[in-house]
Amino acid sequence: MKKYISKIHYLTQDLPNSSHTEQVQIACEAGANWIQYRCLSKTDEEMLAELHPIASICDDWGATLIITNHVYLVNQADIQGVHIEDMDADISLVRNELGENKTIGASATNIDQIKKHIANGVDYIGCGPFAHTDTKPNNCTHWGVKGYQDAVLALQEANLAIPLIAAGGVDITDVSALLETGIHGIAVSAAINKSEEPADAYRMIHHLVY
To answer: How many domains does the chain have?
Structure first.
């Protein structure tokens, strides 16, 4: 089942001066239609308490709501899908648990992981990291623009197709060059959340993408 995948994946993050709910409200008002709730600091009960109002905001604005990693919470709120950050995860097991109607994304750092996720039924893949990121620290090699050019070419040569989302350290100044590689879209978090005017930052990115 082919699903709608936005070209801009907006991710919330744990911040001392802005709750996830506030971040979602700002993003949706600025035009976001794809929200990925990425919380690393709360219990399941605390996340659910936050997810219900977030889901209502997304519903009001017609935005897709995706949760990071917590598969078992997807059906406990009005959540459209999950993004799995474990590159070695077997997405077919997640698909069996959630069914065909839910959207499932996965992270990948190389073409072999991308091909494995495609075979296991993923709907889109967040790949990278593009550059240094403090949002999700890792020791993986930075892809840069060439990494996405290579990934697009490798999939074409293998006669495979999947929406690729550039993730990890993507800033406003990187958007145009990344989209020219032929990828589907970008994932952004700190570039918006840690800017002086998050709503304006989102609108700038939206203008570059669309």
So the answer is: 1
Segment 106-137, tens digit of pLDDT: 999 999 999 999 999 999 999 999 988 877 66
* CATH number of the structural domain spanning residue 85: 3.20.20.70
- 174 lies in a domain? yes
pLDDT by residue (tens digit) across 9-53? 999 999 999 999 999 999 999 999 999 999 999 999 999 999 999
pTM of the full structure: 0.96
Q: Are 182 and 155 in contact (CB under 8 A)?
A: no
Q: What is the dihedral of CA 184, 202, 4, 35, to 10 degrees?
A: 120
CA angle 117, 120, 121 (to 5 degrees): 95
The answer to the question of residue 25 being in a domain is yes
